[in-house]
Amino acid sequence: MPGTVPGTAPGTILVIGATGTTGSRTTAQLVAAGRRVKAAGRTATPLPGAEPVRFDWYDPATHGDALTGADRVYLVPPVGDPDPAAVMLPFLERARAGGVRRAVLLSSSAIPAGGPAVGAVHRALPGLFDEWAVLRPSWFMQNFTGTHAHADSIRAHGTILTAAGTGRVGFVDADDIAAVAVRALTDDRAPDADLVLTGPEALGHDDIAAILTEVTGRRVVHHHLTYDALRERLAAAIPAEFAAMLAGMDRAIAEGAEDRTTDTVERLTGRPPHGFRAVAERELPLRRPAAHAAPDASR
């Protein structure tokens, strides 16, 4: 295999962002399937069954060790960078020259090829690799159960703040994204396609709040913000350009851009995608059943 280091077993998969929401799940599922995995992250965190390796998009000195022996790569873009192509494309050219033949990129249903941010990497990927896939998941269900700002707001205040209005989204489980990533990385034939991933139904944020209330027993409310209010709120914590892009995504949801479902998860994995209620019940503390009243001895 061109570029494979002598003495290194072929078929090693490099997972970039291996401690993240989809990267950790993809790593775990690959290991469970018996695949050799290099788990790349800024701190080379050990993960069961995988080889830890330090990797920083902004430090090319870490790229060589990460790529050594790998022939496939799962790509999670640098978080919060409005122009990830500036660091990703040089890395991908180096990966191709070093023997990587298949690349699977995590993008977003809201960003088409040639669009903003990772859209530029999406557009370039088919010209860099003969075997490729771009995963374009809808918004993650884990945004409400993990470490996302929505989840933090729910835990702290029982609120979800968006500019999405009553727009609906085909929210998708990160476990399902990982399952598709594993197939895209390991099937004999790569998808060589742009794959939009959703859950089984489109839900509004009011629906999400109602389900969370029912599952946890704690009242959760969706507060409707304007685009400007959300942009200003986000800009207090992240770069203004990125804040405007995220607020714009919420505005697009309000206009119906994410009101869809696809059969991609079932088509690639052979099973239906998980619904939001099932994920909430799996990942959140459940409502405690009411205690039965003690029998009245006078009766």
Brief write-up:
With 299 residues, the chain is an alpha/beta fold. It has helices at 21-32, 63-67, 85-97, 119-128, 149-157, 174-186, 205-216, 227-235, 240-254, 264-269, 276-283, and strands spanning 12-16, 37-41, 51-54, 70-75, 102-106, 131-137, 159-162, 168-169, 193-197, 203-204, 221-224.
Task: Tell me about this structure.
- The chain is α/β, with parallel strands linked by helices and 299 residues long.
- It folds into 2 domains: 127 residues, NAD(P)-binding Rossmann-like Domain (Rossmann fold); 108 residues, UDP-galactose 4-epimerase, domain 1.
- It is built from 11 helices and 11 strands.
- This is NAD(P)H-binding protein.
- It comes from Streptomyces flavotricini.
Question: Describe the biggest sheet?
Answer: 7 strands, parallel
Query: Which geometry do the CA atoms define?
Result: globular
Name of the CATH homologous superfamily of the largest domain: NAD(P)-binding Rossmann-like Domain
Content-based structural category: alpha/beta
What pattern of helices and strands is seen along the backbone?
EHEEHEHEHEHEEHEEHEHHHH
How far apart lie the N and C ends? 82 Å
Mean pLDDT: 92
Tell me the β content: 15-25%
CATH architecture heading of the largest domain: 3-Layer(aba) Sandwich
Strand tally = 11
Radius of gyration: 21 Å
Q: In percent, how helical is the residue content?
A: 25-40%
Structure annotation, total helices? 11
Question: What is the CATH fold-level name of the largest domain?
Answer: Rossmann fold
Spatial order of the strands in the main sheet? 3-2-1-4-5-6-9
pLDDT < 50 stretches: 1-10, 290-299
Number of domains: 2
Organism: Streptomyces flavotricini
Domain NAD(P)-binding: 17-113
Biased composition (Basic and acidic residues): 258-269
Protein name: NAD(P)H-binding protein
